[in-house]
Amino acid sequence: MDLPKRLKELRTKRDWSISEVADKLMIAKSTYAGYEYGRRDVPNELLPKIAELYHVPTDYLLGLTNNPMMYDEGWKSIDEIAGEHNADIAEQIKKLGVDVIQLNADLLNRGMTRNELIQLLQMMVNLKSNKNEPPTPE
């Protein structure tokens, strides 16, 4: 898949308008539209910023891989959950049979923030343990 198609797919997957993406990237709407329609080339210096916005590797944007998952993001989030929040949470989530890496990638690719992901995982553990405590806000 070529870059314009990837850009449109990633944007529409999040229900974002061209204007919203252009605002997030701090570029003109017509400029971003030109990228999606293949009328403009994306400058090399903007590729990492677009990749970060969509939580995908630049290789995915460029069609060098079909895997939109950022491996570092997944492992880093698990480390954050286990290290900074609750030392047992990663192990408890594994017991639930949840593929945390894939869940993390899916949710980040849909625009969820790391803190929202951590709260969701904490809620999953609390529900499984029959705890009705709301997750502690960050």
TrEMBL record:
SUPFAM superfamilies: lambda repressor-like DNA-binding domains (SSF47413). Residues 7-61 form the HTH cro/C1-type domain. Keywords: DNA-binding. The keyword DNA-binding applies. It comes from the Bacteria. Gene3D superfamilies: lambda repressor-like DNA-binding domains (1.10.260.40). This is Helix-turn-helix transcriptional regulator. It comes from Alicyclobacillus dauci.
